[in-house]
Amino acid sequence: MEKMLKDRVCLITGAGRGIGKATALLFAKEGAKLVLSDLDEEPLTQAANEAKQLGADVVYITGDVTADGFAEAFVKKAVDNFGPDIHVIVNNAGYTWDGVVHKMTDEQWEAMLKVHCTAPFRIVRAAAPYIRENAKKEKAAGQVVMRKIINVSSIAGTDGNAGQANYSTAKAGVLGFTKTLAKEWGPLNVNVNAVAFGWIETRLTQEKTDETVIEKNGKKIPIGVPKEFLNIFRHMIPLGRPGSPDEAARVILFLASPLSDYVSGQVIKVTGGW
Ligand SMILES: NC(=O)c1ccc[n+]([C@@H]2O[C@H](COP(=O)([O-])OP(=O)(O)OC[C@H]3O[C@@H](n4cnc5c(N)ncnc54)[C@H](O)[C@@H]3O)[C@@H](O)[C@H]2O)c1
Q1: Structural domain count of the chain
Q2: Residue 209 maps to a domain
Q3: For the chain: N or C, fewer Cβ within 10 A?
Q4: What is the 3-state secondary structure (H, E, C) of 125-147?
Q5: What is the pLDDT of residue 198?
Q6: Bridge-partner residues for 222, per DSSP?
Q7: Are 257 and 175 within 8 A, CB to CB?
Q8: Domain range for residue 252?
Q9: Is residue 218 part of a domain?
Q10: What is the 252 CA–ligand 1 centroid distance (Å)?
């Protein structure tokens, strides 16, 4: 069977770990040309090397998706290396910065909107001239080439989650962006969809301790989920367990592949039935 992403130029953010890395490796096996990015150089280089070993053409760029100019540099990396066409964008980079509403700072609130909403918007906007130009030419020539945008959301965004007002607001924003872009770019044969994950086992959802922190702009941000919550989650999941990054990535692959050519403006919950 032909590889599902053969020669398709695919951009993935947050590809150094977890769901983003699993997506990059799955895409590599399906013949994609990969443009990867992450905040952290070392895991990103490692992910890129693993994807290369699977036979993929891979380039990568380290950087903060929320930094000014990042979106343009990311798209330029793709165009400089693989030419002026972009087929798939996976907006996956993200993290949590939990707190109850009455104790949440403006910085905490705004950081979530920036990483989950502003960054995907800017990346799509930076890619727009290439995607739109190519799509218009193909339409005029009577060709059909589907392109794909996949935005990563969460059931915190679809259903809310105590302690995550900033994150759930941002992840709900992702859905508004997804549905609107599906309507704007549908006529250009772009499928735009979101995946809302439940509990996928990654760095983000490990058991919370004093050591589970990430460094951002020199600041230590606590991540992870309290043990008692993880126990409750397990009971709420009909399949009785969290998902693996690979199981998460398979749904992203579906949305990136021709299997989903008539699916757009949707949010798929990937939760083990939760
Ligand atoms: N794990 C889950 O259960 C779960 C559930 C719902 C949604 N999600 C979402 O899935 C996505 C991936 O998370 P994960 O669970 O794989 O976590 P992860 O921490 O394993 O991987 C996320 C990657 O994104 C990168 N990243 C974070 N902020 C960045 C930034 N500002 N710029 C560039 N890179 C950045 C990190 O360095 C990391 O390598 C996130 O958007 C997250 O909110 C995860």
Answers
A1: 1
A2: no
A3: N
A4: HHHHHHHHHHHHHHHHCCCCCCE
A5: 98
A6: 213
A7: no
A8: 9-202+244-270
A9: no
A10: 14
